[in-house]
Amino acid sequence: MTEPLLDHLVYAAPDIDELVTAFAERTGVKPVLGGRHVGRGTRNYLAGLGGNAYLELIGPDDPRAPEGKPATFGIDRLTGPRLAAWVVRPPDIEATVARARAEGYDPGDIGPLSRRTPDGTLLEWRLTPNRGDRFDGLAPALIDWLAAPHPTTNDLPVLPLVSLRGFHPDPAALLAALRALDVELDVAEGAPALEAVLDTPHGPITLR
Domain Glyoxalase-like, which positions (predicted)? Predict the structure, then answer.
């Protein structure tokens, strides 16, 4: 089962250049440069997952910067790649946040974000923040693209998403949060992890 509101998956690593190289070798597909996130010290690359969903590979814009690695998606704590988060696009982000809070789960306040594309275009959108109450990335962030073109409208290479599931030591608590957000994810008991299976030119691969 794949949640129909899925917008994108976030695959994070402490070195974005190494991540992109390894991903291209493993899958046979080279992701496309998305751009740099303004004021956040990160850079991303994109690949389609089929339909209106995509995979975001993200890491420090400068992996060897002396000021250290950004905290976004826990990048500053990573020692290797991790499927760190998933993001959904509800039809009304404010109503979704209000309903979730009324049902006992706080997805966080909605804040502005932006990035510059390789040609210098500024894209702006809104997102609930990377908070500690996301069940280690198992509860999704919420996104509103405003007037920005969705990344899947660009010419992205596509690696179809076969399945997405999660593992958490307290599945009941996670499932309650997902119900509050009105989204679905197959969840089993285990150490916190997201697991996505992609269909690639090299055969199915699993990201965790």
Answer: 6-180
